[in-house]
Specification:
single chain; elongated; 10 strands
Length: 186
């Protein structure tokens, strides 16, 4: 619902007694109008839950560790799949907010830290061809609080937006560098 694209999960393992969850083989399909490949794929996501918080109104997640995210960034003229995803997330969030108001007793979450490590971007540009970009490791902290949590949809959107902004920044840097090299060659 958050991305507006098909999302698949290969496996999900949760041990509430240990407060650990593992998501394997997560993929997010490209938005409509772009190639049939996956916009986003990751081998595993580890979630560390504060099990003491499960008796409270807001469940606290200590850490979400996303390792080895692979992003396909496609640039066709002025259109990009990353921007299409961001635009779709805004539309999806507005629809989710409207439907969330109708449902009572919704789960609320707070996340202390989300870490992205060993990420990469495959850039496909109609002007510059294909190139690989290493995504710098980054961390997002304090999404929601133990007294004022976020719905799962809000949390998903916040995490996806942070990754999308990081990818967009790296793609823009790479496209500028490629344009500069092309101009120097001419």
């Amino acid at each position: 619902q958050v991305t507006g694209s098909k999302v698949q999960v290969g496996d999900l393992q949760i041990s509430l007694t240990e407060g650990v969850g593992l998501v394997s083989d997560l993929t997010v399909a490209n938005p409509k109008g772009f190639s049939g490949g996956n916009l986003f794929a990751v081998g595993s996501i580890m979630v560390d839950i504060d099990i003491r918080s499960l008796v409270n109104s807001v469940y606290v997640i200590e850490l979400i560790s996303i390792d080895g995210a692979r992003v396909l960034a496609e640039q066709e003229g002025r259109n990009s799949n990353i921007q299409a995803l961001l635009d779709g997330m805004t539309t999806g969030a507005e629809a989710n907010d409207a439907s969330s108001e109708k449902v009572g007793g919704e789960i609320l979450l707070a996340v202390k830290e989300v870490s992205f490590t060993n990420g990469s971007v495959q850039l496909k540009s109609d002007v510059f061809g294909e190139t690989s970009i290493t995504l710098p490791d980054f961390t997002v902290r304090d999404l929601g609080t133990s007294t004022d949590g976020m719905t799962p949809e809000q949390l998903g959107e916040a995490i996806a937006m942070q990754l999308a902004f990081q990818v967009k920044d790296e793609v823009v840097k790479e496209l500028r560098e490629l344009a500069k090299e092309a101009a120097l060659d001419k």
